[in-house]
């Protein structure tokens, strides 16, 4: 593997998109490898769909360049680019049969090869017998798969998915997640998916691009995004996170309220700087605490919420007057330690789980 | 990782940038609306500020107008008659719509159909019919207790007949858009029927009522057919324009009156647009449709009411039909087709009728394709904001302009010496473009509504599949919108058949129309043949309407496969 830019399939450089006074995208640069599954994740209005549409050429960018497979495509109309797209609404043509829908982009082929290709695709998506039906006769999940087949029919080099699962009910969604991912791996087609659903992003992506207010907050693997969120925004948007205000009290030391907490590596803030410490609820340990270990604080259980597989506790600690921590304890732990509201107990905030940000 | 390897050979249809087609169509429509709508109105405006020799004289004509009592009186007459018509018509239509939507009355479908009949007739028809019913030798003359039908009474009755279906359609829509949960809430809070009516029903239909009021007022004040036939010596703005232009050849004063007439119509239009914008948010997606409960007293009272109104409507048409077959009212009551021998009278003869059919077909064909293509470009193209905005704005304006004003503007513009477009003056072509321009708005809005219901990503999908938009337009958009296309073409045809306002200034001897023939025969005292020609229009419109129903039914049945599961 080389770090040479030519290795990447799609490169976006310094992209900017303005709608009048409003800047929808700013300083967007990223590069995507061949065969990679990349997810643009962010709240609504963060610019993720705008970015996708710019890559497709459906909404031209105001500035910046896009290079696909070594070809400069920044100013090409969509018809001269090489991509297939699936929309949230599927946008299947209602008056055409499934066959005709899938064959819609195969105009260059003769009848026989067109029929063969449609057959292949319907087989691929697991709906080999639905060719004669109309879209309205299919379920939402089936329609979504037909839309996928239609987009894949001309063998595009790039597959774009714009919130493809958000119109489906939860069960179908989880099923289709896996199916799309498997299909993508099998065809090795470079894919970009837009979603606001962090779970979808974490389970499907090779890499996630987290966006907010038109800029990229972080690019990384799901693991990186979850473990080391680059900003308070990312930490907050992906998964649950506790934030506690404090001051830097050393290279690897912060002070929150009356407690000194150690972090595993230098956090890089000068002594006395205002900082925010973050830790995920499931990282707060309640069992097997190392005797005399660091980062152990005394906590009182204010509230205990039963969530099925685990309990979410609200803890009052000495970290600060208003700083209540949420902590997830397994049902086993709750039972074994007989945890109940009002009880006090020591908990540990493991140094390698702490992330330090500048104060908000 | 290696650089991108060769992709497998894949079908690549020839890629062309198809954008220029969109630009071309939008430009064509912008030019059309500019040439055949905006510029003629500008010519009208300029004429109103000029004297006979064409010199600019500022407001002189307007000062003359407002200081001539006989002219100024017409303005007051018009407002007076329109106001009374509006009050009566909207009240009657509201009760009728209420009966259709909020009761379990029997025969509702029949009443609904009967109420639509006036749309099939030119507005000259109720005038003629009223002459037979309440005129000097009228069948029911005594009903007026000595008052004359020629004047405000006749105009108001005729206009109520003519505007009733328009008000009814708006009010039916308004009353259908209700949320049953509001009534359940009112009932559970112990509100009385009357209180429920005033706190739930009326506010819910508020915007529909406002809209209906303005539509009826505008239709009445700009209508020319009814007052022309039954107005007698009671002058209104619309007849004044006609008299100034056709009678006295005073084009400048005609232009002034047209501008005066334009004012209330534009005002009504602006208010209606503002209201239409508000109505959208009225009904949430979660609303529960209201289902009326049986209530014998209420149901039968409304049935009686609808019966009376429907009888009046059918009666007016039936009177004209009867008159057309009677030899010489009231002296020789034998039946004959004599009155249909149009070639024996002045007014254009049967040729006028065929001209109307020809006009209707051209307008329906050209207008439907043109207007739908324009609406498609406005709704579905990306970018081109300025051009799309201009077309979208210009498309709704024709609704605000009375036909007489537009027709007069055409005279000034196309008859202007040296206008290279002057050659279409006096041809069928000018009647076609005039009628399309005059009735542009409703088809445009119908098309836009239908197009808005289509997934707006169809165009993006076809671009991504390298299929030019015009192929998707033909393969998907047109078939899916076929009901709307049919509605538009029938609307255009019916209006081309019945209109007598704008075209009255534009026809030439060999392009006279059926509605014009009605007018001219009535003017010449041949009132029975006028009734016969008016009935020819009704028969044709009705036949077409039935055909439309049949075709719509077939299309819907064919489309069942993909519309429903």
What characteristics describe this protein?
heterodimer, A: 360 residues, alpha+beta, Rossmann fold, OB fold (Dihydrolipoamide Acetyltransferase, E2P), 2 domains, 6-stranded mixed sheet, 5-stranded antiparallel sheet, 9 helices, elongated, B: 565 residues, mainly alpha, MetI-like fold, 23 helices, 1% strand
Furnish the topology, listing elements before pairings:
The complex is a heterodimer of chains A (about 350) and B (about 575).
Chain A: E1 8-19, E2 22-33, E3 37-41, H1 48-56, E4 63-68, E5 71-72, E6 84-86, H2 98-102, H3 111-124, H4 140-152, E7 158-162, H5 170-187, E8 190-195, H6 198-204, E9 207-212, E10 215-220, H7 222-227, H8 232-237, E11 242-250, E12 253-256, E13 259-262, E14 274-279, E15 296-306, E16 310-317, E17 324-330, H9 331-336, E18 344-348, E19 355-358
Parallel strand pairs in A: 3-8, 3-9, 6-7, 7-8
Antiparallel strand pairs in A: 1-2, 1-4, 4-5, 9-10, 11-12, 11-14, 12-13, 14-19, 15-16, 15-18, 16-17
Helix pairs in contact in A: 3-4
Chain B: H1 19-48, H2 60-67, H3 69-102, H4 108-116, H5 124-134, H6 152-176, H7 180-188, H8 193-204, H9 206-222, H10 225-230, H11 237-247, H12 251-279, H13 296-325, E1 326-328, E2 332-335, H14 349-380, H15 385-396, H16 403-414, H17 428-438, H18 441-452, H19 458-464, H20 469-480, H21 482-498, H22 514-523, H23 527-563
Antiparallel strand pairs in B: 1-2
Helix pairs in contact in B: 1-12, 1-14, 1-15, 1-16, 1-17, 3-6, 3-9, 3-13, 4-13, 5-6, 5-13, 5-23, 6-9, 9-12, 11-12, 12-16, 13-23, 14-15, 14-17, 14-18, 14-21, 14-22, 18-21, 21-23, 22-23
């Amino acid at each position: 593997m080389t770090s040479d830019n030519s290795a990447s399939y799609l490169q976006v450089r310094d992209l900017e998109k303005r709608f009048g006074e409003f800047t929808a995208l700013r300083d967007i640069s990223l590069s995507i490898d061949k065969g990679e599954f990349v997810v643009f994740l962010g709240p609504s209005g963060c610019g993720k769909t705008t970015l996708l549409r710019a890559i497709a050429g459906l909404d031209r960018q105001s500035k910046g360049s896009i290079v696909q497979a070594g070809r400069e495509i920044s100013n090409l109309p969509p018809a001269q680019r090489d991509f297939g797209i699936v929309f949230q609404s599927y946008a299947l043509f209602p008056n055409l049969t499934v066959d005709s829908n899938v064959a819609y982009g195969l105009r260059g082929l003769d009848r026989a090869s067109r029929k063969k290709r449609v057959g292949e695709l319907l087989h691929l998506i697991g709906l080999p017998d639905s060719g004669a039906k109309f879209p309205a006769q299919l379920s939402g999940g089936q329609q979504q798969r037909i839309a996928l087949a239609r987009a894949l029919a001309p063998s595009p080099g790039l597959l774009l998915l714009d919130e493809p699962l958000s119109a489906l009910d939860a069960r179908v969604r989880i099923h289709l997640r896996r199916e799309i991912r498997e299909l993508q791996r099998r065809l090795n087609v470079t894919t970009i998916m837009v979603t606001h659903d962090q779970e979808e992003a974490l389970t499907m992506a090779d890499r996630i691009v987290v966006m907010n207010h038109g800029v990229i907050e972080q690019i990384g693997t799901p693991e990186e995004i979850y473990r080391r969120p680059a900003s308070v925004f990312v930490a907050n948007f992906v998964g649950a996170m506790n934030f506690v205000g404090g001051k830097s009290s050393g290279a690897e030391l912060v002070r929150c309220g009356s407690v000194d907490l150690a972090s595993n590596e230098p956090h890089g803030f000068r002594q006395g700087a205002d900082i925010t410490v973050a830790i995920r609820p499931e990282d707060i340990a309640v069992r097997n605490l190392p005797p005399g270990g660091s980062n152990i604080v005394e906590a009182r259980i204010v509230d205990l919420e039963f969530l099925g597989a685990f309990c979410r506790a609200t803890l009052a600690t000495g970290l600060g007057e208003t700083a209540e921590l949420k902590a997830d304890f397994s049902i086993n732990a709750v039972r074994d330690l007989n945890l109940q509201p009002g009880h006090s107990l020591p908990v540990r905030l493991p140094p390698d789980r702490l992330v330090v940000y500048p104060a908000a | 990782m290696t650089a991108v390897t060769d992709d497998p050979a894949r079908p690549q249809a020839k890629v062309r940038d198809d954008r220029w087609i969109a630009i071309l169509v939008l430009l064509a429509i912008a030019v059309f609306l500019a040439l055949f709508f905006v510029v003629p109105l500008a010519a009208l405006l300029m004429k109103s500020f000029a004297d006979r020799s064409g010199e600019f004289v500022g407001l002189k004509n307007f000062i003359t107008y407002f200081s001539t009592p006989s002219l100024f009186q017409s303005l007051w007459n018009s407002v007076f008659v329109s106001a009374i018509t509006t009050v009566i018509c909207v009240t009657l239509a509201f009760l009728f719509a209420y009966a259709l939507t909020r009761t379990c009355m029997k025969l509702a479908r029949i009443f609904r159909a009967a109420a639509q009949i006036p749309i099939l007739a030119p507005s000259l028809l109720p005038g003629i019919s009223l002459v037979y019913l309440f005129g000097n030798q009228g069948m029911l003359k005594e009903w007026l207790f000595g008052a004359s039908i020629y004047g405000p009474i006749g105009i108001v009755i005729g206009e109520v007949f003519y505007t009733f279906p328009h008000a009814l359609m708006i009010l039916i829509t308004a009353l259908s858009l209700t949320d049953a949960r509001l009534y359940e809430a009112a009932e559970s809070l112990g509100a009385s029927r009357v209180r429920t009516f005033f706190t739930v029903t009326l506010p819910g239909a508020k915007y529909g009522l406002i809209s209906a009021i303005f539509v009826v007022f505008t239709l009445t004040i700009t209508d020319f057919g009814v007052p022309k036939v039954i107005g007698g010596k009671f002058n209104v703005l619309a007849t004044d324009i006609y008299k100034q232009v056709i009678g006295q050849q005073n084009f400048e004063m005609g232009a002034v009156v047209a501008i005066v007439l334009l004012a209330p119509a534009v005002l009504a239009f602006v208010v209606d647009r503002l209201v239409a914008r508000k109505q959208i948010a009225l009904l949430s997606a979660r609303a529960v449709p209201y289902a009326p409960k049986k209530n014998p007293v209420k149901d039968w009272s409304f049935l009686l009411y609808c019966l009376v109104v429907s009888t009046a409507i059918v009666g007016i048409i039936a009177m004209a039909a009867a008159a057309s077959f009677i030899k010489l009212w009231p002296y020789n009551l034998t039946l004959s087709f004599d009155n249909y021998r149009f070639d024996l009278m002045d007014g254009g003869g049967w040729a006028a009728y065929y001209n109307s059919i020809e006009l209707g077909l051209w307008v329906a064909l050209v207008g439907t394709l043109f207007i739908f293509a324009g609406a498609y470009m406005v709704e579905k193209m990306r970018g081109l904001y300025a051009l799309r905005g201009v077309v979208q704005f210009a498309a709704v304006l024709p609704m605000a302009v009375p036909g007489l004003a537009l027709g007069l503007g055409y005279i000034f513009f196309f008859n202007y010496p040296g206008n290279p477009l002057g050659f279409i003056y006096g041809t069928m072509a000018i009647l076609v473009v005039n009628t399309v321009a005059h009735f542009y708005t409703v088809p445009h809005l119908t098309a836009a509504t239908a197009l808005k219901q289509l997934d707006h990503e169809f165009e993006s999908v076809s671009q991504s599949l390298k299929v030019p938009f015009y192929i998707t337009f033909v393969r998907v958009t047109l078939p899916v919108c076929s009901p709307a296309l049919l509605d538009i073409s029938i609307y255009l045809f019916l209006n081309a058949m019945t209109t007598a306002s704008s075209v009255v200034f534009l026809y030439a001897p060999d392009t006279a129309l059926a509605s014009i023939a009605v007018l001219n025969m009535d003017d010449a005292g041949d009132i029975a043949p006028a009734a016969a020609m008016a009935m020819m229009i009704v028969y044709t419109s009705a036949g077409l309407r039935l055909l439309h129903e049949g075709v719509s039914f077939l299309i819907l049945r064919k489309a069942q496969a993909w519309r429903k599961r």
